[in-house]
Design a protein that fits this description.
Blueprint lengths: L3 E7 L13 H12 L3 E10 L6 E6 L2 E9 H20 L10 H18 L8 E5 L6 H7 L5 E5 L7 H4 L5 H7 L5 E4 L2 H14 L3 E2 L4 E4 L2 E7 L6 H8 L2 H14 L3 E6 L8 H14 L7 E6 L8 H21 L7 E4 L5 H10 L2 E4 L9 H8 L7 E5 L12 E3 L4 H13 L2 H17 L2 H14 L13
Helix pairs in contact: 1-16, 2-3, 3-4, 8-12, 9-12, 10-11, 10-14, 12-13, 13-15
Length: 469
């Protein structure tokens, strides 16, 4: 049986799954790696003075892991620079925040070559390789140059940008051309795939082959849509665990018979956090009768604090939450509880279950699994209501949510009011339809569908070494 090699910037294979902190994606990939006797390769998160390529091999709960340290310059240019200051904002349509510095692109190319040089000797003839996300787009090209002929697939966890924005990236053609060294490229939604095809056909003069494939740059790549889901059974187990029940009980008591609205998002400008608070402020303005009867709990762990744009948004959110609380709070009621902390999966499950409304309103998002987790956490007899941005990848599947334009504070205000006043029968109907989607598109199904498609992808020269030019 062939091995599966998973490649990602950071390796999230759980050290102790019983601890309950591992995410659904990590658990699903770990299960696949155990099934295929596979390997998870990536950056260790550590830096060294001089890059050596020395591997650290670990066994994490039965999953074989291979880690490599990077130089500080690699981390600054490849990770903090090109990945997080260039590609991340560009892929989320924030060209105004994208930093197009030559050193970042050079560091990105150099670090991917280093990853390829370290990984290549580990690859056996029958191995299947699955590369994840925007950090490592050129990896297959660099592996091909080293003579690797195995099947290699790539999955993008973020949106793909519109062609008119992508062309603002220096060497955008080289980046897209490198993707044609893969045998299969996967996206969450039809929209992201359509945008990728549009660039290839309109900008690079490629052609669709009518079978889900694209031909360009003298090569062919198969494409597909693979919407990611959550580990439903694992999440329900976390919800019903002692920690999940304890969190639910605490939040129910803390709410003091008020309706709780919950938002859980990593601190990022793509999540629409400022627009969300402004929409909630509009709701408080429009519906004075709801003041004192509802509150917003916004959980926002800090991330990428070394990037200026993230420091700026943190300061703006702190000020905005403070202003709204200052204007509307009473002696016994505060409209916003704003927390910059990380919580375990069981705690989040209990939190979601206690919330009358789940507010998931990114400005642009690859999928957004918080929406699916919120639905899974609900009490079937008395479920809450999901408000979901139409610009999240999940909106393509979850049409029974209250879909909103997060840029419109009036639309957010109206949706919050509707969610709080929706009759029980309608809440149940919506929840049942949404829960069926969550079950039908779980993370294990996503994983198996991609691996199956990669193994079945037509071979038309991609497994030959790419041009070294």
């Amino acid at each position: 049986m062939s091995r599966l090699i998973v490649v990602s910037n950071r390796v999230s294979a759980p050290v102790d799954p019983a601890a309950g902190s591992a995410g659904g994606l990590a658990m699903a990939l770990s299960a696949a790696l155990k099934t295929y006797d596979g390997l998870w390769f990536g950056w260790s998160g550590e830096t060294v003075e001089t890059f050596t390529g020395e591997l650290k091999h670990q066994d994490r709960a039965g999953v074989q892991v291979a880690l490599v340290d990077l130089e500080a310059q690699d981390v600054e240019e490849y990770y903090n620079g090109y990945a997080n200051k260039t590609l991340w904002p560009l892929f989320h349509h924030r060209v105004d925040l994208s930093a197009y510095e030559r050193s970042y692109g050079e560091g990105y190319e150099r670090t991917n070559r280093r990853f390829a040089e370290v990984l290549a000797p580990l690859i056996q003839p029958d191995d299947v390789i699955w590369v994840h996300d925007y950090h490592m787009i050129p990896l297959a090209r660099d592996l091909r140059r080293l003579g690797v002929t195995n099947r290699i697939g790539f999955f993008l966890h973020t949106p793909w940008p519109a062609r008119q924005l992508l062309v603002t990236l220096p060497h955008h053609r080289r980046l897209v051309e490198s993707m044609f060294a893969y045998d299969l490229v996967g996206f969450h939604t039809e929209e992201w795939l359509d945008l990728f095809r549009d660039y290839v056909v309109s900008e690079a003069r490629g052609e669709l082959d009518g079978q889900g494939g694209l031909e360009c740059f003298g090569r062919r790549v198969q494409t597909g849509i693979f919407p990611i889901g959550i580990d439903v059974d694992g999440f329900l187990k976390a919800r019903d665990s002692a920690g999940g029940v304890r969190t639910y009980d605490r939040m129910a008591a803390s709410a003091a018979f008020r309706s709780m609205i919950v938002g859980v998002d990593r601190l990022d400008y793509s999540k629409g956090l400022e627009q969300r608070l402004l929409g909630y402020e509009q709701f408080l303005h429009d519906h004075a009768e709801q003041r004192g009867k509802v509150f917003l709990l916004q959980v926002t762990p800090i991330s990428r604090d070394e990037v200026d744009a993230y420091q700026d948004i943190r300061a703006r959110l702190d000020a905005l939450a403070g202003r709204i609380n200052g204007e509307y709070s009473e002696m016994d009621w505060q409209p916003i509880r704003y927390l910059n902390r990380t919580y375990r999966r069981d705690q989040l499950a209990g939190l979601y279950r206690a919330a009358r409304v789940g507010l998931v309103t990114p400005l642009r998002d690859g999928m957004n699994l918080v929406a699916k987790e919120y639905v899974a956490a609900q009490n079937p007899d008395d479920p809450g209501v999901l408000i979901l941005s139409r610009f999240a990848g999940a909106a393509e599947q979850m049409g029974e949510a209250l879909l909103v334009n997060p840029f419109s504070r009036e639309e957010l205000s109206d949706a919050i009011h509707k969610a709080l006043t929706l009759p029980l029968a309608e809440r149940r109907r919506k929840w049942e339809a949404l829960m069926q989607v969550v079950r039908d598109t779980d993370v294990a199904g996503w994983r198996d569908a991609f691996v199956r498609a990669l193994k079945a992808a037509p071979i038309s020269g991609n497994n030959a070494p790419a041009n070294a030019a």
